[in-house]
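PROTOCOL LOG
Step 1. Enter all chains and additional molecules of the complex.
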Amino acid sequence: MITLKNLTKIFDAGGEPVTAVDHVNLEVPAGETAILLGPSGCGKTTTLKMINRIIPKTSGKILIDGEDTDGVNEIELRRNIGYVIQQIGLFPNMTVEENIAVVPDLLGWEKKKSRARAAELLEMVALDPSIFLKRYPKELSGGQQQRVGVARALAADPPVMLMDEPFGAIDPINREVIQDEFLKLQQEMRKTIMFVSHDIDEAVKMGDRIAIFRAGRLIQYDTPDNVLAHPINEFIADFVGGDRTLKRLRLVRVYEAMDAEPPKIVPEDDIRKAVKLMEDHEHQNAVVVGPRGRPRGYVHYNDVKDASGAVKEHWAGYPKTVSIDADLRTAVSEMFTHNVTWLACVDDDGRFRGYITQRQITHHLGATYTDRSELPDPNVPPPGTPVAQAEEAS
Amino acid sequence: MITLKNLTKIFDAGGEPVTAVDHVNLEVPAGETAILLGPSGCGKTTTLKMINRIIPKTSGKILIDGEDTDGVNEIELRRNIGYVIQQIGLFPNMTVEENIAVVPDLLGWEKKKSRARAAELLEMVALDPSIFLKRYPKELSGGQQQRVGVARALAADPPVMLMDEPFGAIDPINREVIQDEFLKLQQEMRKTIMFVSHDIDEAVKMGDRIAIFRAGRLIQYDTPDNVLAHPINEFIADFVGGDRTLKRLRLVRVYEAMDAEPPKIVPEDDIRKAVKLMEDHEHQNAVVVGPRGRPRGYVHYNDVKDASGAVKEHWAGYPKTVSIDADLRTAVSEMFTHNVTWLACVDDDGRFRGYITQRQITHHLGATYTDRSELPDPNVPPPGTPVAQAEEAS
Amino acid sequence: ETITVGGKNFTEQLLLAEMTEQLLAAKGYDVDKRDGLGSTVLRQAQENGQVDVYWEYTGTSLVVYNKVKERLSPEETYEKVKELDAEKGLVWLNPSKANNTYALAMNRSEAEEKGIASISDLKAKLEAGEELSFAVNAEFPHREDGLRGLQKTYDFRYPRSLLKAMESGLTYQALKENQVDVGLVFATDGRIAAFDFVTLEDDRGFFPAYAITPVIRKETLDANPELAEVLNGLSAKLDDDTMRKLNASVDVDKKTIEEVAGNFLSEQGLI
Amino acid sequence: METIAFITSNLGVIGELTMEHISIVAVAVGLAVLTGVPIGIAITQNRSAADIVLYIASIIVTVPSIALFGIMIPVLSLIGHGIGYLPAVIAVLLYSQLPIIRNTYTAINNVDPALREAARGMGMKPVQRLWRVEIPLAIPVIMAGVRTAVVMNIGITAIAAYIGAGGLGTLISRGISQTDPRQLITGALAVSLLAIAADYFLYWVQRRLTPAGTR
Amino acid sequence: MAAAASARESVGNRVLGWIGLLAAFGFGILVSATGLIDEFVYYWPDIEYLAVQHMRLVAISGGLAIVAGIAIGIWLSRPSMARFAETVMQVFNIGTTIPTLAILALSMSLLGIGAVPAIFGLFIASLLPIVRNTYAGLKAVPAHMKEAANGMGMSPRTMLLRVELPNALYVIFAGIRTALTINVGTVPLAFLIGGGGLGELIFTGIALNEFGMMLAGAVPTAALAIATDFAIAQIQYWAIPRGVNPQR
Ligand SMILES: Nc1ncnc2c1ncn2[C@@H]1O[C@H](COP(=O)(O)OP(=O)(O)OP(=O)(O)O)[C@@H](O)[C@H]1O
Ligand SMILES: Nc1ncnc2c1ncn2[C@@H]1O[C@H](COP(=O)(O)OP(=O)(O)OP(=O)(O)O)[C@@H](O)[C@H]1O
Ligand SMILES: C[N+](C)(C)CC(=O)O
Ligand SMILES: [Mg+2]
Ligand SMILES: [Mg+2]
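Step 2. Run joint prediction.
Step 3. Record the structure below.
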């Protein structure tokens, strides 16, 4: 856990004081990632560097796991904090192996152990040790260097990591890949991470929380979804962008928003049973599944509400599907693509697992909005309105 | 007009032949912009540079306005083609004015004329000549340099422009601004432009057509909307991204998709007139406008279908609005934000100009899809279904 | 027509070149001076016309340039070189009475202490294994009238490691500061007396006579016959003592060459 | 103190020697610029030619200066100029080649390929490219080479006193042979000051010649 | 890219090799034609004796200059010196423009004649490029690299030894190369102040117009200079890790 209490930095820029960081209070719970976000020059880097004392603070307190770091020896402190600088900063005179083993060496680990650790970490960041251990930094691509930089910071397994725009130098396509890899890694490692970024998309993707700075002040510190859903002022709203709601869609997986117990029928079922199920669930459609639970077709309420016979006599076609692991943005895109308002949700094996509609998505997002809005939106039908009526209501 | 016929380039890389461009056929109609898009190393730059013979072609033909360029003297050819290189390439030893006037000088223009042209062009790229003419490139920000680079390429008013990732060096925020400016410029200039990019969003925004390359081959050459709507194979589909439909939304302005003659009522109208209008238009809502045509509220069909009295007795609240110049993506985001399925569209003066629904947006996109899909989607209600029924239909 | 005056790289020669320059300039000639050169370079330069006139020593021309091995009296030496050099288009004018011969010198106290008075004494000491280092200039070890001939005549070998070569003027300082035991000196140098050196007797009469003489290219002389008289006039004023005094004014009294040369010429009424 | 007295009473001689010194260096380096810059530009066209030329030029500078003078004497004696001004000028000319050629070559070669491509792309002919883009950009580096050459050769010209070329080396050589610290120090100081002054002067010229935009 | 460059380089090297061979061959013809070989044989004892002296002068003055130069360079580059370092370097830069003959002369006026002032003069002349390159090399180590080192808890000493010096090594070596090559070429002047070395043959050769003798001094001096340069280049090539060695 990292705790900042009234942390302040005033630089002396040629006689004039420049307040780079202004009474910042912030806590990063153990095992979580906080993203420091904000326009250029807002004090992100300065905040980060005060934690490992690359920059001395002017006032305030910095606690790690509750302990005031003022009492800790500087060298000691730094050895317990992994630090990834923006410019990567690999030592060109050392091989990849030596670079990764620097801190273990400093800590006096046995050579054998530190070398083994280097290999292990390289593997962890998806670089083949047999190829890369003996290479020099200049023989690596930018993205590979970046990964080695992360591996190096992890070498002595420090509980805390500071990362200053660690993926800043990488082109957008590779950046996505590396972000994904790092997320996977962090899922296992559960480090306490403070991460500087200037990219809202990266922040939303990588952070458990986002701290948005402006001119040295911490303006909002919240979960990505809250930052997007409830920017506390115009500045934040502008900063996160006009399409912030579509950004939020990225944060939610289909399985979180879908109806997970949808009406499920087999071709041999009586159509009346299907109609009954739809009415009970207030769904307009029922998906027909095959013997292994895979969607094979669907029936539409209006088409069959007065029909009789077996379900298989009334199939309306093959349903459009989406993976339950996809994010809602993909789901919305699929709906627009196929000009439908609902999708059958399937798992990796293609089995039908849920039912998701545009309306559910809107509601899911809206649920967060309405918590905080002072007055109910007159445009929204009161909860509990039957489906048919609710559909008409808009 | 630029025409490439079976254009091929085979490099000799240390004895081994590398086919960088492979029988490319492509035509850029006069006054249009074609974007060359594709992964790194796919041959975009090579294709571009063969046109002004910075790289000699191996085989094939290059025609400009129907004339085979093989017959044209190299220097002559280049002076008729504006060229913006990726690295900007302003001459640091010359002022902005001298940089822009280089080609006119080479062409032997009178000094006075070429200087006047420089000032004019600077104005055109939104830089104040009185400030910038006498500056040196290093005294300009990256974005300003980029604009001067474009101005320079335009100096002798060449009918054809080649631009190699011209906005590549600029940060994402300024990039948008400069792209917009350039679009405006091109609207007046109507140059024939070939433009290399590796960014699908930029391509969609800037291009009349997009040429997607892979390993030296031209895979698809089509309008942005068609590329997004009908990628001809998996590679293209992957390349343009999973959320390609949402990307398409960017291409369409609200005024293109909205109902431009919506029911419009004033508070003093009889509510029965309003109900009648909604039924005629098959709308669920009618917007109530004030004396200057600004939306002041709305009434919802279901709420008032059996009501009587003046409209002002039945207001359901203030409608959510969107600018008619916004793109559909913003409209969708607004709908999600406010959890509504329709928006009142307003012009710059805030006057009510149209009515747009999620359904209309879906239909607008779907219209293109259905042109080409072999079978009608069973999920889509037949056109002409009344609104209420159509709503229910999904 | 410019007269080019040459000079070697030690004080006496620089003085003579300067005097000649001033003298000729006073007589209305355009003069160009090329001094600071080694003996043979200068001589070669004169032979192929780059230098018109300079002051040479009879013995040097006899042994070094004309490779004559015989022992000759001073007069014979003069006649011999005059005759031999005439063939090369060089005219020896009147010799002065100054004889600037090589000499080996020691600090008086050390010489007396070690009991060395002659070159033979020195040879004996060396052969007895005493390490007496010897400061020489660049030319001496490699000249036939220098160490080469000396070693033959006295039949000994100066060990390489005891030879300290340096710029010609530095031998005096080296010896004075006791950095070496023996120093090569020129007999007309003012510092021998000033620094209280003793010169070792050339007891086998090895060194030839070195009468200072103006030597001029025949072509130049033919073009300017009056030069003979002018230069002979200066030559007549020079003898060992005069040279020693002049040299001492520069090396000991630290007057400049230009000053010393000018004063001498005007004192002697030459300009 | 004595030295100051010496200097003040011999200003004329010192001035004359300084002029001799400057005239050797100025003429030689001037000629070296006229030869070295075109050579430096020419060899940018061919990598192996460049290697050869630079190799030869760097061999020349490893020859000790006094030895180069020594070599010059018999060679130039054939045309009657073995000592004095000419060998000094030629030696300096030769020593100047390496810094001038190398800097010209490097500077032209280091012109950002993007600029070269931009120039090509707008239809400049090779000569236009050279005059309008490459040379203006290379000037500061070429001038730095000239500066190096001048400073280095002011030192080398001092040694030319030993082959009768005159110049400020005369004071040093007399100072040494007459063990006269006044002349020695005067000579050494004068040569050093000349080098420093030349360096500053050329730095100023370099700044003047550097296009404002690249300063 | 890298492959192409190195291929070109090796072509270049081959060309140079051929030129060297041709030059040596041509020189051989010249030498035998003018009977210079005999001269060299004749002067061999002198060459041997003086070359040793020559190398001793280089080794002592150069060795001291390397040790002192690197030490001063490191000292000037320390953050605590930042305030004075630039001024000191300015003075040093002016120092490098002072001709070596002048340095030797001044050194003689201080220390008299012989090997000691020669060594001192040569030491001063070699010191400057080494200090300059050490300082510049250390200052050129990118700040972010030092920050990374700091951030992982290296002590200043460790940082100097493990990060700064290794990364400055190439530039420092370049300074040493320049300094020692110049040093070797300057030693002949030491003769003038009684310092010994191959200059003796050169100056005598010139004075007596004996071309052979002059070459007997000059050729070994040039050869020593080239050999020194080559030797340091080899050390530079092999001793500097591949990661920071632009040649590898
Ligand atoms: N050493 C310094 N002296 C004076 N002012 C400084 C110093 N370092 C930073 N600042 C100022 O402090 C402010 C915060 O700088 P900081 O580097 O923390 O910004 P940042 O948020 O990391 O910006 P960026 O996104 O551009 O990296 C800026 O206004 C900067 O100019
Ligand atoms: N001079 C050359 N010699 C050999 N191969 C080359 C040469 N120039 C380019 N290539 C190869 O040709 C292919 C196409 O290169 P090109 O520069 O056109 O790619 P690109 O599409 O512009 O890529 P990027 O987006 O990275 O700029 C690449 O595989 C490249 O390696
Ligand atoms: C002055 N000496 C005669 C001793 C030597 C010389 O010929 O210069
Ligand atoms: Mg920062
Ligand atoms: Mg490209």
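Step 4. Note key features.
Chain A is about 40% helix and 25% strand.
Residues 369-394 of chain A have pLDDT under 50 and may be disordered.
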